[in-house]
């Protein structure tokens, strides 16, 4: 049964849903308050240059290959994509520099030269454990619908594989388990940083998240034009299959009638009827009533203490000196525990680790610009953008602390720095009711991954997608959430046709057992 589907939010999850649903013959309308598609995957002009202001690391390319393929297209026909030979460059101080490579043998050799033969052996053991965890959870959890712990997950993994359930190490912290592999604290810090990919502290996340390092080792890809180019390509494909896009228009209410989502109302008063509504936004916005009081009961609320990290993000077009930048670079603080203690106390870290994406460089450090280059610089921060207003003085202090961290590792930025600064305030404005949390719920504690909002909600006909829902944060995970949402919508619309062959205007639809739970 084809149906009318409204998708609220043109982020990666919403776009992936739109492509699949439109390709399957459904009448799809995508609505976004922003004037562009991509959500957080956007560009902001600095010094008249477009600088990527959202996600920059592209992994699990096969997820997007499948999205394009379901519409009879090839990703390579729409985008110029090449695999990076250097995953990231890392630094702790003068002369302390380490690259991780696409070829794991090169990474092992580099680690051995950096920290000794014991460290290389530890890296081999770490790689094996991370790969095993990913192999256990890839199809049973990451690419499948939300599941509970432990018995439903055990059923998916296989009842005869009890050892695999224990092998994902949900009850031990990532920081602790990394200590088993790396005596050198710099390497422990390097691999702990992967917890920040989902906006969490390595001291509170389960060791299960070692799988993120394995995901990156499978390949990091560089997209000409950045993530916004990927979003635009998905929009074109969805439109070619009939999807309609209403950009620069805000949804103010999801209309619930007789217990089911039936339409959305725009800020201009227009009402768009729907057989299904997919919300590609942080569930916190839905639960707080941002889309209407009736729709607020669709999902459980989330306390501010459960939020993921926010960030201070400098978008710059500046001269650089000293350190040989690659595309992706991480400059570590000397005291990682203190850094996360500062964030836990509700303040930006005084001596932060800093991520720098040098957008005009290739992944080997070549292509150094002659004058200025485009940079995205990130420091982790608390998600307090709804209760704390960052003053000009606080912004200047954070900028000074960031530049001091870079200088300690040998990188000098032009001073004064031509830039635009995004704080938790700006991220709260972009995603209201989140405090500026970029990744939804923090992955703290063994149960966190099982508490993320799933595809289904408490209201039939209303579904969730996006990086704040299952299976988690990140560009490919958001796309997977979009796939899950599209599959559930199509399943439920087909069920409606089986059980309600005749649609009567004003009739009451029966509640499906498939939509009773919150998923």
Explain what this protein looks like in three dimensions.
This protein has 519 residues and is an alpha/beta fold. 35% of the residues lie in helices and 20% in strands. The protein has 17 helices and 21 strands. The strands form six sheets. The chain has a seven-stranded mixed beta sheet. Helix 4 crosses helix 9 and helix 7 packs across helix 8 (185-192). The protein is globular. The two termini are 23 Å apart.
Notable traits:
disordered C terminus, 35% helix, five-stranded parallel β-sheet, 17 helices, alpha/beta, globular, 519 residues, seven-stranded mixed β-sheet
The count of strands amounts to 21
What gyration radius follows from the Cα positions, in whole Å? Answer: 23 Å
**How big a fraction of the residues is strand?**
15-25%
Mean pLDDT: 91
* Class from secondary-structure proportions: alpha/beta
Low-confidence region ranges: 501-519
- Kindly report the spatial arrangement of strands forming the biggest sheet: 7-6-16-17-18-14-20
Q: Tell me the quaternary state.
A: single chain
Largest sheet: 7 strands, mixed
Shape: globular
